[in-house]
Amino acid sequence: MTFEKMITLSLVICTKDRPTQLRRCLESVLGQTCPPDEIVIVDASIDDKSLSVVKEMRRKKRSPRFLYTHTYPGTARQRNIGFEMANAYVVGSVDDDTILDKEALRIIKEVFNKGNTDLGGVMPRLIDPKDRRQSIWSLKSLYKRIFMLSHNFAKHVFIQASGFPAFPFQRQEITEPQEAEVLNGLYFYKKEVVKNYKFNEGFHGYSFMEDVEFAYRVSKNFKLLYVPSARIMHLHVPTSRSSYFETYKQIVENHHYFFLHAIEGTFVNWLAFYWSHIGLLISALSKKNALGRGGSLSGVLSGFRAILRLQRIKRYQQSVRLSTKSYKNEKFNAKAALSD
Hints:
This protein has 340 residues and is an alpha/beta fold. The chain has 13 helices and eleven strands. The strands form two sheets. Strands 1, 2, 3, 4, 5, 6, 9, 10 and 11 form a nine-stranded mixed sheet that branches. A two-stranded antiparallel ribbon has the order 7-8.
């Protein structure tokens, strides 16, 4: 048996109240030239519609193996549960609103097949349909780079002085794997890595930057790679005023937490940190409709207040203990949930 055949891959998909997106994602996963050996669904929906989708897909194809569990919402918590349930050599995570290129998982497997013992995690190229018309000199791109916010036109994956990461997703000329300081959004880790690291559940709800913070800790002991030839499209669904509020509030709070723990607290770096938040504030004010503008602005201001009162720091520190505990006692009931 070759080493290539020995490599197995589990794909974790966290979902909440988006059965249509989940079905589309699963169809792209099942259509892979090299499908995963296991699909783990961690569902936080308020109804059984997503479970019905999983059962439907399972009836269509008995292979790969399906595992399913229902739990409380929270991206970091759901990913911890999914990674604990997964059994393969490589464990990957994609969002329910993604579509995988047919060759994506084959390419990911080939990277891990090379047997690099230092390699801990891999990130594919993330494609956002909304960014297709943008260039490195577009107004939106220039704005993000000027204010040192997260952007997709960097020459490599790195953490800026502001604490926001930068990625080369829009750099079409980059085709070969390159080392990365962090991973973001969609990622694949060796199971041995996720056994010893957990997502910090202080990054609750939408959990902005929980993946960057996780990867930053992993990077201290393992090599991380960006693999642009593996392509995954990330779609987006409309959001509400409350979602705008929560998203921008967590961007401010979680970014502050990450900055404190990952970036050296020099005068220049703190200046970059505050400069980036001016950019966030302008971004919130520039939303085209009142719904997004009101929710985003309220979220940014609420995040600023939380930072000034240091409300989140104690909660984050307490959550570390919870995040590093094993989830083996969680009642997943995967077989019972999927029984027809």
